[in-house]
Amino acid sequence: MTHLVAAIQMASGSDKAANLEKAENLIRLAGARGARLVALPEVFNWRGKRSDEAAAAESLEGPTLTLMAGLARELEIHLVAGSITEDAPGHTKRYNSSVLIGPDGGRLAVYRKIHLFDVDLPGRVTIKESDAKMAGVEVVSAQTALATIGLSVCYDLRFPELYRRLAFAGARIITIPSAFTFPTGEAHWDVLIRARAIENQCYVIAPAQFGPNVHGFSDYGNSMIVDPWGRVIARATDMEGVVIAPIDLEYLERVRRELPSLAHARLR
Asked: Where do runs of H (alpha helix) occur along the chain?
């Protein structure tokens, strides 16, 4: 069976209302073009100074996900709410959380980013996500009417064991909402996205942030949809917008049948 899926590329900033308006417009555009699964990038609703993060954090019942649930229900789509900064009452740090919402507006899965981005590239980018975030501990996938969907976020991309566990859990589609820095994206984004698709024989949907950001460096963009053979079937240009591609689950099963590498795996 074939379905259209969409990856949304954004340049989110510190104005949450403006980010949400933009996200809503792009989701509606994807829905109008026939997408049945739409994925937003990491931190799509707010991206600002760390000193303002506590005030910008929300619960899973907060206004951002309430809006996303309403859109999913109205448009009758599956929606991956890229990631938000999720409040964690009783803790000084928060989670970076990706939420899968069904066509009825119900919450199907919540994934809290496991691998936090602590990197120092001298003269280019210094980030320590763990200063403000807590790491999740659960590998998360959900059975849906489209297929089993596995969830991940950005820096997780560098840890193939996570994606192999998602594949063994039945995932046919894997989402990787991201805000990849330009230096690391230019070097590794394409090859890592394609590798995760090839080695797990899954469709990969990777919506991303693009362009200069509030932290003083640039995000790589290049939002992509990749098929189980590793072919890039949609890629965003250097702007905000939506890319759409068909996913064919019969083709996916044929790839797995003709090259049964997952069935041959000796280590699990």
From this structure: 16-32, 53-56, 63-75, 160-168, 182-184, 190-200, 249-258, 261-264
Catalytic residue from among 113, 133, 202, 240: 113
Q: Which domain holds residue 169?
A: 2-264
What residues contact 252, with CB distance under 8 A and at least 6 apart?
172, 201, 202, 203, 227, 228
DSSP string, 74-95: HHT-EEEEEEEEE--TT-SSBE
Strands 203-206 and 224-226 come out as antiparallel
Give the integer Cα–Cα distance in Å for 83 and 117: 14
Residue 101, phi then psi, degrees to nearest 5: -120, 140
User: DSSP string covering 239-257, please?
Assistant: SSEEEEEEEEHHHHHHHHH
List, in sequence order, every residue forming a beta bridge with 3; answer none if it has no partner: 247
CATH of the domain at 43: 3.60.110.10
Active site residue 113: yes
**Model confidence, pTM:** 0.96
Of the residues 22, 129, 133, 154, only one is catalytic, namely 154
Residues 208 and 220 sit within 8 Å (Cβ to Cβ): yes
Cβ atoms within 10 A of the Cβ of 218, count? Answer: 18
pLDDT in tens, 192-217: 999 999 999 999 999 999 999 988 88
The number of helix segments (H) and strand segments (E) in the chain equals 8, 16
Q: Point out the catalytic residue in the list 42, 86, 129, 240.
A: 42
Q: Per-residue pLDDT tens for 151-163?
A: 999 999 999 999 9
Count: domains in the chain:
1
> Residue 143 contacts by C-beta under 8 Å, 6 or more apart in sequence?
170
Strands 95-101 and 37-39: unpaired
